[in-house]
Structure formats: C-alpha cells, structure tokens
C-alpha cells in the first residue's frame, strides 16, 4: 500500500513493471504502469496497492530508492 501525503504526484520506483501489479483496491482490476528505463512510474495520490512476488527485502530497498516526481 502506498499514497501521497500532500496531494498528487508520480512515484518512480526502481523496479521493472513486469514484476508489479498495480490496483486501486485489493483484488481489483490491474492498472497500467508507465515505465522509465528499468523503473516503474506509479501514480501517487489516493491509496493504491502493489502486488509482487519479489522478496520483501528487495521491495523495501526499491522503496528506499524511490523518488517523487
């Protein structure tokens, strides 16, 4: 789960979109993810959900390196 605390933005997450599923609600329809090289560009605003098979440690490292654009 992630969201933007101050409005709207774009989250640049250094993970390929092929390893992520983005949803507005748990179990909802997958949303499209834009890419920027090897990174995924995720809309940040209201609460959204990411599903992945990546190990937790890898996901934590990616979020630590993420940028709000």
Summary keywords:
alpha+beta; 6 strands; 1 helix; 69 residues
Describe the protein's architecture and organization.
- By secondary structure, the chain is α+β, with helices and mostly antiparallel strands.
- 13% of the residues lie in helices and 32% in strands.
- The chain has a four-stranded antiparallel sheet, with no helix packed on it. It has a two-stranded antiparallel sheet with strand order 2-5.
- A hairpin with a 2-residue loop joins strand 3 (34-36) and strand 4 (39-44).
- The model has no long low-confidence stretch (mean pLDDT 92).
- Find the count of extended strands (DSSP E, 2+ residues): 6
Q: Which residues sit in consecutive blocks of at least 5 with pLDDT less than 50?
A: none
Shape: globular
Averaged pLDDT:
92
Cα distance spanning the termini: 18 Å
List the helices and strands in order: EEEEEHE
- How are the strands of the biggest sheet laid out side by side? 3-4-1-6
């Amino acid at each position: 789960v992630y969201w933007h605390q101050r409005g709207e933005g774009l989250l640049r997450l250094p993970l390929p979109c092929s390893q992520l599923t983005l949803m507005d609600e748990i179990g909802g329809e997958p949303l499209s993810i834009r890419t920027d090289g090897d990174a995924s560009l995720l809309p940040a605003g209201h609460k959204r959900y990411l599903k992945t098979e990546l190990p937790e440690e890898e996901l934590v490292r990616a979020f630590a390196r993420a940028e709000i654009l």
